[in-house]
Amino acid sequence: MQLAVLGVGGAGGRVAARLAAAESEDRPYVATVAAFDTDPEAIADLDVPQERRHAFGTTSRSTGDA
Asked: Which InterPro entries would you find in this protein's record (predicted)?
């Protein structure tokens, strides 16, 4: 059995990257890994293939004006 590992947010992305890095070559268990985050800088630092890093959402803060 192999897993598709999806990391969401900063912590989720780091966990996904660590799981992929820790797998054994003689017994791989990660079929694919992807990371999703709203912070482009944080996602750029992950040890996840570039094509599997996805930035989404807005990174600007609300001013509270409605």
From this structure: Tubulin/FtsZ_GTPase_sf
Residue 32 phi/psi, 5-degree rounding, is -155, 155
- Residue 30's SS3 state is strand
Give pLDDT tens digits for 50-61. 999 999 886 565
pTM of the model: 0.75
The verdict on residue 64 lying in a domain is no
- Number of domain units in the chain: 1
Joined together, the tokens standing for residue 18 give 């660590």
Q: Are 55 and 37 in contact (CB under 8 A)?
A: yes
Dihedral (CA of 2, 55, 15, 11) sign: negative
